[in-house]
Protein backbone atom coordinates (compact mmCIF):
# COMPACT_ATOMS: atom_id res chain seq x y z
CA UNK A 1 0.00 0.00 0.00
CA UNK A 2 1.06 3.57 -0.69
CA UNK A 3 -0.08 6.68 1.20
CA UNK A 4 -0.35 9.96 -0.71
CA UNK A 5 -0.60 12.95 1.63
CA UNK A 6 -0.94 16.54 0.38
CA UNK A 7 -1.07 19.75 2.41
CA UNK A 8 -2.25 22.88 0.65
CA UNK A 9 -2.19 26.53 1.60
CA UNK A 10 -4.73 28.67 -0.20
CA UNK A 11 -3.91 31.97 -1.87
CA UNK A 12 -3.77 35.02 0.40
CA UNK A 13 -6.10 37.10 -1.75
CA UNK A 14 -9.06 34.82 -0.99
CA UNK A 15 -11.43 36.05 1.72
CA UNK A 16 -12.32 33.79 4.63
CA UNK A 17 -15.69 33.08 3.01
CA UNK A 18 -14.04 32.28 -0.34
CA UNK A 19 -11.56 29.97 1.40
CA UNK A 20 -14.41 28.08 3.05
CA UNK A 21 -16.14 27.63 -0.32
CA UNK A 22 -12.90 26.56 -2.04
CA UNK A 23 -12.13 24.02 0.70
CA UNK A 24 -15.63 22.55 0.41
CA UNK A 25 -15.27 22.35 -3.38
CA UNK A 26 -11.89 20.61 -3.15
CA UNK A 27 -13.24 18.13 -0.59
CA UNK A 28 -16.31 17.37 -2.71
CA UNK A 29 -14.28 17.05 -5.90
CA UNK A 30 -11.53 14.83 -4.58
CA UNK A 31 -13.69 12.62 -2.37
CA UNK A 32 -16.02 12.26 -5.36
CA UNK A 33 -13.22 10.30 -7.07
CA UNK A 34 -13.74 7.36 -4.69
CA UNK A 35 -14.54 4.25 -6.67
CA UNK A 36 -13.53 5.87 -9.98
CA UNK A 37 -9.74 5.50 -9.91
CA UNK A 38 -8.23 2.03 -10.41
CA UNK A 39 -6.11 1.03 -7.41
CA UNK A 40 -7.42 3.76 -5.09
CA UNK A 41 -8.26 2.26 -1.71
CA UNK A 42 -9.34 5.36 0.24
CA UNK A 43 -9.50 9.15 -0.13
CA UNK A 44 -10.32 11.77 2.49
CA UNK A 45 -9.92 15.54 2.59
CA UNK A 46 -9.73 17.34 5.94
CA UNK A 47 -10.84 20.97 5.79
CA UNK A 48 -11.27 21.62 9.53
CA UNK A 49 -7.76 22.28 10.79
CA UNK A 50 -7.19 23.84 14.19
CA UNK A 51 -6.02 27.46 14.54
CA UNK A 52 -2.49 26.18 15.21
CA UNK A 53 -2.28 24.78 11.65
CA UNK A 54 -0.12 26.42 9.00
CA UNK A 55 -1.90 24.68 6.08
CA UNK A 56 -5.53 25.09 5.05
CA UNK A 57 -6.47 21.53 4.07
CA UNK A 58 -5.10 18.01 3.72
CA UNK A 59 -5.61 15.14 1.29
CA UNK A 60 -5.08 11.70 2.83
CA UNK A 61 -5.32 8.95 0.23
CA UNK A 62 -4.27 5.31 -0.03
CA UNK A 63 -3.41 3.32 -3.15
CA UNK A 64 -2.71 -0.34 -3.77
CA UNK A 65 0.73 0.41 -5.24
CA UNK A 66 3.04 3.12 -6.50
CA UNK A 67 1.83 2.27 -10.02
CA UNK A 68 -1.77 2.95 -8.95
CA UNK A 69 -0.67 6.34 -7.55
CA UNK A 70 1.01 7.16 -10.86
CA UNK A 71 -2.22 6.23 -12.66
CA UNK A 72 -4.22 8.50 -10.34
CA UNK A 73 -1.92 11.44 -11.13
CA UNK A 74 -2.84 11.33 -14.82
CA UNK A 75 -6.40 9.99 -14.59
CA UNK A 76 -8.69 12.41 -16.49
CA UNK A 77 -11.22 12.74 -13.64
CA UNK A 78 -8.45 13.56 -11.14
CA UNK A 79 -6.82 16.03 -13.55
CA UNK A 80 -10.19 17.77 -14.03
CA UNK A 81 -10.63 18.23 -10.27
CA UNK A 82 -7.02 19.36 -9.81
CA UNK A 83 -7.20 21.86 -12.67
CA UNK A 84 -10.68 23.16 -11.84
CA UNK A 85 -10.95 23.11 -8.06
CA UNK A 86 -7.42 22.95 -6.62
CA UNK A 87 -4.63 24.58 -8.64
CA UNK A 88 -6.36 27.93 -9.30
CA UNK A 89 -6.74 28.57 -5.55
CA UNK A 90 -3.62 27.16 -3.93
CA UNK A 91 -0.27 28.85 -3.41
CA UNK A 92 1.66 26.08 -1.62
CA UNK A 93 1.48 22.30 -2.12
CA UNK A 94 3.49 19.90 0.01
CA UNK A 95 3.42 16.17 -0.76
CA UNK A 96 4.59 13.06 1.06
CA UNK A 97 4.20 9.64 -0.59
CA UNK A 98 5.27 6.55 1.35
CA UNK A 99 4.74 2.81 1.58
CA UNK A 100 2.78 1.35 4.48
From TrEMBL:
InterPro entries: Dabb, Dimeric_a/b-barrel. SUPFAM superfamilies: Dimeric alpha+beta barrel (SSF54909). Residues 2-98 form the Stress-response A/B barrel domain. Signal peptide: none annotated. PROSITE patterns: S_R_A_B_BARREL. It comes from the Bacteria. This is Stress responsive A/B Barrel Domain.
Amino acid sequence: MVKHIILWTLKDELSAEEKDQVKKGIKEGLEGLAGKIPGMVDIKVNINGLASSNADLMLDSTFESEEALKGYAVHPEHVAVADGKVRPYTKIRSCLDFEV
